[in-house]
Amino acid sequence: MFTTIYTHEIKTWFKKPLFYIYAGALFILAMLLSAIAVGVFDSDNVTVTSSIELNSAVGIYSMLGFFALLTYLLIPSIMGGTIQRDFDNNMHNVLYSYPLTKFTYLVAKFSAGMTITLLVIFASVLGTTLGFYLPGANEALVGPFEIMNYLQPFLLYIIPNVFFYGIIVFSITAFLRNINIGFMFVLVMIILQLTASSSLQSMDDTYWVELLEPTGDAATYIKIRYWSPEEQSNQLIPVEGTLLYNRLLWLGISLIIFFAVLFGFNFSQNPTNLRLKPKKAQRAIKRNFGTIQSIKMPKVTADFTFIGQLKTAWVLAKSDLKYIVTGWPFIIIVVIAFAFSLVTMLVSGEIYGTGILPKTWLMLSIVTGLFTIFIYLLIFLYGGLIMDRANSSHLKQMIDATPTQNWTILISKFIALFLMTLTLLLIVMISGMIIQGYNGFFDFEIPLYLFDLYVINSWNFIPWILLTLLVHTLIKNKWLGLLTLLVFAVGVPLLMSAIGVEQGQFIFNQGGSSPSPSDMNGYGVGLPSFYTYRIYWIALGIALFTLAVLFYRRGMGSSMKERFAFAKARTTTTTTATIAVSLIVFLGIGGYLWYLNNVLDEQMTGKEREELQVNFEKELGKFAGVPQPITVAINTYMDIYPETRDFKAGATYTMVNQTQYPIDTLHVNYPDRPTTIEMDRKSEIVYDNEDYDYRMYQFESPLMPGDTLQFSFTTENEPNTLLKNNSPVLDNGTFINNGIFPAIGYNEQFEIRNTQVREKYNLPPKDRLPAPEAPGARDRNYLGPNAHWIDFEATVSTSPDQIAIAPGYLIKEWEEDGRRYFHYKMDSKMLNFYAFLSGRYAVLKDNHKGVALEIYYHPQHDYNIDRMMKGLKKGLDYYNDNYTPYQHRQARIIEFPRTGGGFAQAFPNTIPFSEAIGFIADVDDESNDNVDYPFSITAHELAHQWWAHQVIGANAKGATLLSESMSEYSSLKVLEKTNGKYQMRNFLKDAMDGYLLGRTTESIGENPLMYNENQQYIHYQKGSLILYAISDYIGEKNFNNVAKRFAEKYQFKGAPYPTATEFVDDIRAATPDSLQYLIKDMFETITLYDNQINDGSYKQLHDGTYEVDINAQVIKARSNAKGKLRYKNEMNDSITFTPEGKKKALESLPLADYIEVGVFGENDEENDQPKVLYLQKLKITDINNDFKIKVDEKPVEVGIDPFNKLIDRNTQDNRRNISEKKE
């Protein structure tokens, strides 16, 4: 009987078009995605590159994980539908009368559902595989075909997860006979999965999340999160540890549920009742004993007017809304979504484990993320449910017979879905206010909540609601309608992007993204564009809605021919006019947008930009290195008009021919805006290419060595329009740097650096930066060509209620013609690197040892200005004491809006600082898990006044070691001196995590620190780790003396500029012979450790002291640029150790390393950190190491490299709690 039922179910599904639609949709979508990933559409789009092989086990796991997520949403339709079919067709009454066993019936039904579901997913596997090998695929992105790369994710994840989701949906359907509840369960589980995944980044101990997350994704992420591109390309996912436990646990839970269903299911007529309190039975009592009873009928007044139909629509909408929001599935989903919102908001915005104040804009930012996707899913789902509600309630024909018009019914559905959306948006507001109150922050800004959620974001959902109604009108099966909407939402944007269509007006409901609020600048200039695009898409939505009215299923006819006949018959002047007007609005706005984006301001596709870069290099690359005059002085002006968001600017560059050769041609990169250029000697334009914004001026008489050139220009923005902002000026908080000004000489930064792209266009191989010893590398600094150290003067004007700031000292301030003017002049040489700022600021002033300190801040952002002022003072003290004297008499911090970026940047004596970092940080001084990052970022940016603005590296590999790494190290030392060493472990651990994650996505190749090519994860995160560690090993004073001597040697020096190799040589000279290996490990190579505590115990001695036994493992390896590890040195030597009970030996580079071993006691009462009982650097020569250490107090924990000073991909096992040794 099992075979009979199973075969029947399989044959039934094979006869249903739905199976082929599901499988075909996933097959096509998978093929499209994989084809895009391997560059099949490169001829139409920007070149696709990847540092990993996409058909590796990790690549297939990621790809199949996405399609599995889609398939989970189809499980209710497939596995639930397999058993629900018997109830819908009332066949269960017949089947249950047969001599069937529960086991046979349920196992056959479930097995058939599993088979069909896995076949649907397997279609995505076939599509993915085929896509990898389509004509045009980039062979460099696809490795050899390995069957295990496909089998492992399928066997390890897909089958167990389908079994888990399937058995629960199957059991819900079997007991409750309601597929919808099964779908809600799937949706709830997906939300929980996303919540668990989003919380991993902020958790130190992820064990329980890894174990309890049902799909295994969390455990897999932790297992492979630090894998290099080489490992991602060539290794299977190791099934061990928590990943193995997770798979076994959830397989066991699935089996328990499976057997519970087998034992709990009954062949009963009615579904299981889940009411907590069953309804009391009521006895029917006959009251009409007479033969005639008087009945008073209510008076009914029929109203078929337009207003009457609207009233009917409102009544129907309330009924549908009640059906949605009072149903247990929706209530459960809302509770889960509420919890998801709370968790997401709690961890949002953390830096170094320190949160930011829960400003309302931060709480609202959740709407633009996963929560929006969640709302779209519910629109797609409940759109189908309420469209099918009458049919599923067997009231369809009765309702169809009423005189209620089609548009009335559909309007009611729209209202219900829109009100459901508003209800869901309310979750954001409520959860946001709860988080704010929980954190003691009661500046709720309720008007901002209401405006952002209901006046802005709610508009995003209207076009999708209208499209949803059309899709579910045309497609009778609600699950097929759901799949259609999902494929349309995911697949169409991908396809359009693949074929080079990038403008939002051609991709449904895109364009004019929702503007984000800023405390300083409100919503800026984004609202007109946002509403224009929304009206544009709503106009199309109205046309689609009208089509839904025409094709609405009513009556018995259901074939497409009949549907078209009905639609033709229903077409009236009103429907025709509605479609015509909405399409006229849609096409009219669309034409205007196209005119703006393609005629007035031609938009370039990614492909066109890529080809432009290629042609730029091919045509002009020969001029790289052509001698040009050097800028020695700049006198500039900047007129800022916040009211109209305009600017007018100009400058005079004083340039000198400092070469030994006559210069007959000046190469100018000019801005893409109205610009005039004049010079004090005659010249003519011999080359002018507006595509490259590149011009060559040939002098009538050459500029001889030592000659001076006055180069003057003016520039201003194109006029702003309603939909196009052509200016960086803001109403409040303008921040403009000198990148908008003309630059002299060929700019290599515009060249393509990706190796794969260069190879495609037959460009010669080229590193991102030249080698330190390369010819000409030291002739310029890495910030830009054709300027060394300059004299600088600027006049900045703005509105009378704003303060304008530029580097230098304020010489004069005045008002003229209703505007405010500020004249700044620097009294010493500075880099050709400056900015202009303007805003309505409050100002905090102080003076520290003769240096004027100023913080210009938004009046409402005074939360952390004292910390920042303290950072300036402590930084000045440390840097003056340990390096060279501060070169300025002033240091300023100026706040700018978060919409301009979340960073701070150091210009000469001037530090623009985003409102999103520092100013609104929520630092808890009583918590040891917090890092005072307003203080540390301030110290970092101040350190740049030494490490960049005194010593600037050559335009060569390793340049940012001398600026970013040294500034990060300097700020760490200031933080350590001020707040103590206990904050260092959190900071270094965060830096370690940033570096290890950064190298997993390296697109070209990882470089050692001293040869880094402006790779942020190296010069920031790794640089801070390495320099902090080396100063700890050789001594802080010793290291600082090296830095001081280096700064004194190169302070304000021009060409030849210093290199990182010189600096490392100086460190090497100050390093003892026993520690020389550190130079190679830390600076010259990519060296990784695997340190861990295997075991530890203690016993108390007779004298009251404690003897601690520690067993630790130390493994050292080197990595190449792609992340391939090597355990042998240049002489091919290594060491090995085979642990007891293991067959495979551990291997390591030869060791003679000094590594810290620590013993820790109970938490110190002063800082609530474990008390350090013992901490020494011990020489390690073996992989397996035993230590016997004596301490005076009771030990609690032991560690090897306990403060994360060495690069270790798993720092969780560096420390371990110990217990007393049993005798």
From TrEMBL:
Keywords: Membrane, Transmembrane, Transmembrane helix
Single GO molecular function: zinc ion binding
Keyword Transmembrane helix belongs to the record: yes
A Pfam short name: Peptidase_M1
Bilayer-spanning residue ranges: 20-40, 60-83, 103-134, 154-176, 183-203, 248-267, 328-349, 361-386, 407-434, 446-467, 479-499, 535-552, 573-595
Domain (Peptidase M1 membrane alanine aminopeptidase): residue spans on this chain: 873-1070
Domain of life of the native organism: Bacteria
InterPro entries: Peptidase_M1_dom, Peptidase_M4/M1_CTD_sf
Protein name, UniProt field: Peptidase M1 membrane alanine aminopeptidase domain-containing protein
